[in-house]
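Incident log, structure service

09:12 report received: a user says their structure output differs between two submissions of the same chain.
09:20 pulled the input from the user's history:
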Amino acid sequence: MTRSSPTLTVRQAQSDDEAAVVAFTEDTWSDRDVSDYIPRVFAEWVETDGAAQRTFVLDVNHGEDIAGICQAAMLSDHEGWLQGMRMNPAYRGQGRSKSLANAGLRWCREQGATVARVMVFSWNIAGLGQAQSVGFEPETEFRFAEPEPDPNAEPALPIGDNPTAAWSFWTTAAAREDLRGLVMDDEESWALSTLTRDRLVGAAADDRLLTVRDGGVAGIAYRDRTIERSAEAGETETWALYGVAAWETPAAAEALYHAIQRDAAAAGVDRTRVLIPESARWIADTARARVPVADEPDFVLGADLTDPAIGSL
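09:34 re-ran on a clean worker, output below:
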């Protein structure tokens, strides 16, 4: 068997695949100031594969090389997520990535998912085309706001923490419509899932829910969790991740961001990341509140797993 006509087979990833996977993912986006997380998480992915996730590789000639990788995960009882899809440059341009995506989609369906989603950086044009080629369709786009923790931030509007009021606001919020109901997932990094009332109840119980009142509720946000991330000189920073921020007016946005700054300071974190919808309205309100935002948005695409053709395109 020659290199020009290899036998490629999709199978579950194994620990022995790590060296080959790391070799072709170390410089995934060498033309951009973005590092790939796959080399850092591959070993953990393999170790934790189970009912909630499955990591696939595209095997070359029964162990000779690895042509690609993709992981499928279940975020809820009906929502699947595909992530980490990478192709070895030596095997690109052959249409082989579809077999990896299809394996992930079929696995999600087998676990009971009726929808599977994927996130693609807005600048990753090839990734967008690849996702659509296997049945994903555009759902929403978002951006991260990054208000600085500030114990002295003073919201100009009253701040509460009533989960029932927050849920009532969310069900009719324009931000919810723009996001298709999706927020930062509460367990899987770099994933979005549907916000539920129970999640808001849990946030309120742990003093992580923020509501802005201007007459009625005019804005909501909640601190989902904190994480440790590498910083300069080998140090680490603590980040607070806010699952979503949604509001009605520029005044409500400013008050909500001030409440987030104060909450983040109380949580003792160094930095924040707040998911907001991507449109002129939400970015303009954020800018008016003098809150920095990420340079570029991210796109989320979804695949309808009730369609039997999905997973075989």
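09:41 both user submissions now match this output. Likely a transient worker issue. Closing.
09:42 reviewer note: The radius of gyration is 21 Å. The chain has two domains: 8-141+300-304, 147-292.
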